[in-house]
Design goal:
The protein is an all-alpha fold. The protein is built from 10 helices and no strands. The longest helix is centred in the first third of the chain and has 28 residues.
């Protein structure tokens, strides 16, 4: 059981991460200061550094926290009672949601800029993404085991799916702004139906 002290530390760490997320998304990485983050978190600068050794370490923690939240949203279990298209659409909607959310999409833009100039940081975050990206892989394996899909390489099939979802739902919104409801629905259908045209088991 966590002690009151440990709970307070966890609460303060979360407050710092929330403040950092807002600051990085609004001001960018270079302009964001540890002083500003500390002010927003209602903490001293020393407290922030006690939790995170540097701005780079703090930014990496923000990126990892975002990755974890996205993975939690992708936690879809195989359901033989639901259509394949409906279940795949849930996965695709995560991409659409993140890109449409102003704070998250702006944070993504900031992250891309940081990753270009700090490739080692990009490697560490992307390694975590790869390690965490198992929900769709497990779903695909279950669908294959139940005879609903023909997926011999679940990891490769997952890459294909996310490439479709990113191309139709993520990048257009991150770079060009939110899709209207009709365009979003059409894109969701195209992602699921195109994937199923490749991997659905023939009758």
């Amino acid at each position: 059981m966590n002690s009151p002290h440990a709970l307070r530390l966890a609460k303060k760490r979360n407050e710092i991460l929330e403040a950092a997320t807002l600051t990085f998304s609004e001001e960018g990485y270079d302009a964001a200061s540890m002083d500003r983050i500390a002010e927003r978190a209602g903490a001293s600068k020393r407290t922030v550094y006690n939790h995170f050794d540097s701005k780079e370490v703090l930014f990496e923690a923000v990126a990892e926290r975002l990755v974890l939240r996205l993975q939690q949203m992708k936690a879809v279990s195989w359901d033989p009672e639901r259509s394949l298209e409906a279940q795949l659409t849930v996965f695709a909607e995560v991409k659409a949601f993140v890109a449409a959310d102003p704070q998250w999409s702006q944070l993504m833009r900031v992250m891309l800029g940081v990753f270009i100039h700090q490739p080692k940081l990009a490697e560490r975050v992307m390694a975590q993404v790869a390690a965490e990206e198992q929900h769709l892989v497990r779903w695909l394996r279950a669908a294959h085991a139940h005879g609903a899909l023909h997926v011999l390489d679940a990891e490769r099939a997952a890459e294909v799916f996310w490439a479709l979802a990113s191309g139709l739902l993520f990048w257009p919104q991150v770079l060009g702004g939110p899709l209207n409801p009709q365009a979003k629905q059409a894109a969701l259908q195209d992602v699921a139906q195109t994937f199923l045209a490749r991997y659905a088991k023939s009758a």
